[in-house]
Amino acid sequence: MTSPIKIGFLQPYSSLYPYYAEHLLTGFFLGFDRDPFRQNDIQFIPYFTESGSGTKCAEGIKKLIHIDKVDMISGLISYAALPEILPLLESYNKLGFFFDMGENIPHFDYLGDHAFFSSNQLWQSEFALGKWASKHFGSPIGMIMPMYEAGYHLHSSFNQGVSMGSGGNILLKVIDSTKMNPHLVLPAPAIAEMKTGNPSVVHALFSGPSGLQFLNDWHQAGLNKEIPLIVNENMVYDEWLSDVRHLGLELFTASTYDPRNESKENKRFVQKFRAIAGQDTNMYALLGYEGGLVFKELFSFLQKKDFDKVKSLLKTEKVRGPRGERNFYPESGFSIPEIDVLKVKTSNTSIDRLVVESGKGLLYNESIFKDIREATPSGWKNPYMCI
């Protein structure tokens, strides 16, 4: 009997999605066509990385390799941790297969042959939103976000989209957190200030309770349906937007995944996850599922623990999942996601989404990658929403 495949899992803390790891791993096993509660040939061994810094990830990798004797490394990481992760993967000749929300653009200066990614590519939907907004609404475009969101590539991706669209001025307002609670922001003063600039449209970039506070303050200021509002993708996830749907909001966003789409691949995923987890799908479950799909294809080599072959195949392997074609090696060119620009309307009883246009993503080797990265020369080291 062959020994199980042991996978070390780097697991940061998230107050916004405290069960993300369970959802991600459930999705992984479902994509692998296995019951998450009844399998023994694959074992995930977690290591708590606190906020997910490169230092903590490196500590985790050393412990998982030396003490737990894992065969490969996985987990939720930030690209900012790669400078400390990649040398370890190379020195120990270990495969790393990681998950991320896509809050930052991959650093293509050096990724090596050991690291692969199941990414949501949030920056792609932000770029598409900026390009669409500049053409549809004109200038000036307002942008409001907390200091937290300002530490990632989301706003600079939006700005580049504006530049590559019809251009225009950006009215930027960054909100500091309160002294009593570093994760709580008060958007009302920024909204009032933004209103005086007469923006043609406002883009709000928030996450978690701060996003709910913004939507409440926006409505309270009487701006709902008065000034067009664009929000980032995660602000309209059902688990958050359902708390404020009674406000009768009207807003726009861009998304790379619609859980309601009728493709056979998506219907299979939604049904399997609901049956095993007793709830609707979410982005973490989807990222795990897409990873499970590709490892299912490579399982014969995993069983033999031929990880050099697995790494070689992962450079070119593609799968068709709930949101179309996906691949996992940036230097081979991430598949450009299918992006929908949506008009979202809420009521006491429903959240309605209407596709108004197909957004345009970016090829992996576009020169503006460098421009976007340099627009945020420093930032947070933790994965997005791991606060």
TrEMBL record:
Gene3D superfamilies hit by this protein: 3.40.50.2300
UniProt keyword list: Signal
Domain Leucine-binding protein: 4-345
Domain of life of the organism encoding this protein: Bacteria
Pfam family, one: Peripla_BP_6
Protein family (similarity comment): Belongs to the leucine-binding protein family.
This protein's name: ABC transporter substrate-binding protein
Native species: Algoriphagus marincola
